[in-house]
Amino acid sequence: MSTIDLTTPSPPPESLLDALPRRVSLTLPELQEVARRAGDAPLPFDIVAPPETDALEARLGASRGTSEDEAYGAVLAALHDPVESLVRRGLLTDDEPARATLDQGLAGAVGLLATPRVALDLDLAVDAGTPLQVKAWHRQAGDAVATLATCDGIVFELAWFPTSAWSAELARVAVLPEDLAARESRVPAYLDLPFELADAAVEAGTTGRSDLVQVLTSRHEGGVRDGDGRALPEAEVSGVLAALGTESQGRLRAMVADVSRASTTVVGVRSWLLLSDGWRSLHSHHRDGLPCVEVRATEPADLAADLAPVLAEVMA
């Protein structure tokens, strides 16, 4: 039985180069050209052509979504020819584009993206000032991992590295933007509360329905507990739940699946919530038969350990 251990230090690499991930930035046309030359390897995402402007938009003006699609298409159209740029960058090794050979590292990375044992999809969104969304696809098989990530769908980072370096690469996904100001949070470093309350708190923060929190709080008296298992005083619960909803400014979701089998099954999902002072991991469980969720302060470096039980189940 093979396992992936992300919770203990990795053995020292035989050389410095063995420990360093290889990274290449590729535009979408370059990435598509690389995939084509790697045996038409499928990419881990679908490319949807923007819809044509309908008659109503032609009369009343383009919608915001249509305008964004047009801007996106204009940027792609302005990019250099992918074959020429790959040759210029040395990623196609022959000066004659028609006979060019794809860099072996690139070919192997794209091939691993297409034929992994384990698939891990990460979706990060931060809405503080300038909205930021990052999508990352991690694919693992044997002793190797290949990753693909983008924040705009135009430029992608393709990386490949040994499985022993996976923990550090996972932490990179959860690192917050430098210009994101951290403030003291009213939410304790650890909470254990009924899922119904947590869900209502987040909804109240986005819709202004604070009355939902008050009603549900009265139904779950003594249900919100701290790290020592003690129930928070009712006078504190409303403020904590309100902060849980209003401080929310981002989330991170990770989905893990074993894709080596005939039928792909999502084995587990991990979710993090971004509050004023940083990340909180969310873990569901049952307490006295009641669905509950643990809300625990965490750091980017903890993402690998948080995913380790899910990965262990995949590899069992």
Alpha-carbon Rg, integer: 23 Å
**Oligomeric composition of the shown chains:** single chain
Strand segment count: 10
Number of helices: 11
Summed up, the domain count is 2
Report the end-to-end length measured between terminal Cα atoms.
7 Å
Poorly predicted segments: none
Strand order within the widest sheet? Answer: 1-5-4-3-2-7-8-9-10-6
Q: What is the beta-strand fraction? A: 25-35%
Helix content: 25-40%
Q: What can you see in these coordinates?
A:
This protein has 316 residues and is α+β, with helices and mostly antiparallel strands. The chain has two domains: 18-116 and 135-171, no CATH class; 190-315, no CATH class. It is 35% helix and 27% strand. The chain contains eleven helices and ten strands. It has helices at residues 16-19, 28-37, 55-60, 64-77, 82-88, 104-114, 166-174, 195-207, 210-219, 234-246, 303-315; strands at residues 22-27, 118-126, 132-141, 144-150, 155-162, 190-194, 250-258, 265-275, 278-287, 290-298. The protein has a ten-stranded antiparallel beta sheet, with helices on both faces. β7 and β8 (265-275) form a beta hairpin. The longest helix is centred in the N-terminal third of the chain and has 14 residues, at 64-77.
Task: Describe the structure using short key phrases.
11 helices, 10 strands, 10-stranded antiparallel beta sheet, single chain, 2 domains, elongated, 316 residues, alpha+beta
